[in-house]
Structures are given as C-alpha cells and as structure tokens.
DUF4381 domain-containing protein (Rhodanobacter hydrolyticus), 172 residues
Amino acid sequence: MMPQSLPLNGPELRDIHLPPAPSWWPLAPGWWAMMVLVLLALIVAAWFLLHRHRQHKRQRLLLGELEELAARHARVGDDAALAAALHQLLRRVARSHDEAATRQRGDSWRRTLARVPVAIPVLDRLMALEQAIYRPQAKLDAPATLAAARSWLRAAASPRAWKPLAVEQGHV
C-alpha cells in the first residue's frame, strides 16, 4: 500500500479561533477589595460628618440659649438672675462630662471649668458667677461675663476639647 500523498503545501488546517473575551462578571479579587475599601471609607466619612453635625448642632443650641439669656438680661437688667442662669447653664454642660460637677464648689469647680482649654481671665470671669449668685444685689459686668461664657461654651461643645478626668485628678 502506498501512502496517501500529502498536498504540496502541507496539511489543510482550520482557522485559528480566539477564546471568548473575558467576562466582566465575576469581578477579580482586586476589584472586590477596592469596593470594600471604598465602602469602609464612605462609612467612616458618614460617621464623621454625622458626628460633626451633632457637635455643631449642640454648639448652636448652647449659644442660642446663651443669646436668649443675654436678650432677657437686656430687657430686665437683673444681674443676679443672669448670673444664676449662666451658672446653671455652665453646670449643665459640665455635668455631661463629669457627674460630680453639680456638687462642686470653689477650686474643684474651677478645675472642672479648666478641663476646657480657655484663657485664665475667662475662668476668673466664670468663677465670679459663683459668688454673684449668692449676693442679693450682684453687680456683674454682663458683656464681659457673656463673652467669657460664650468662649467657654464654644470650646466645651466639643467632647474632644475636654481634658480627661484622670489627668486632672493626678494634679490635685
């Protein structure tokens, strides 16, 4: 038997078939990791913005209450009532960071106020409130006292502004 002869140009070949294009789904592991990171970044950003919004809202409420007290004092002119209302507002804010703030007097109250970083004259002005609330005819520099309270409340509205209790107790 004679072998079958091959064509002169070689065997007859079929056309080359390319594989199908890669599918976009399922995604490669790198894309999944990137989506997880983006999702985490969005969650952190949303939490940060919400926290910041709440902090600004609290500051606006406190300063709004302070402005109401200033307006009432401008109408009535009672320094003792202004001193009592300001003192109560400061104690209420301080109580949210230190439960003992409602019972403190003198130096311990000053240390609580000093946990918020404000200037010494601001602290001195706020400490004068404690004396003024017990005097029947209290004389108060209302604009300076309101400015000191405004400064302290702006700083105190941020929970991160407060120095930790342990640091303060270590200096006592």
